[in-house]
Amino acid sequence: MSYERVKANYDAGLWSKAMARMAVRKGVITKAEYQEITGEAYQAA
User: Which residues 6+ apart lie within 8 Å of 41 measured at CB?
Assistant: First the structure.
């Protein structure tokens, strides 16, 4: 899994913001990358 895959899945509507947050928690993407992908600052749920 990579930033590119997370972004592609999110952009295609296959991933939700919650799933992108999980990718941050698992260390797949950074908080800054989360913000680039979703347009929102990362906040742990």
Answer: 31, 35
- Give 19-31 pLDDT, tens digit per residue: 999 999 999 999 9
Residues 10, 38, 9, CA angle at the centre, nearest 5°? 10
Helices (H), 1-45: 3-11, 17-25, 31-38
CA 1 to chain centre: 11
How far apart (Å, rounded) are the C-alpha atoms in residues 39 and 2? Answer: 18
Q: Which residue has the tokens 């930033």?
A: 3
Q: Is the pTM of this model over 0.85?
A: yes
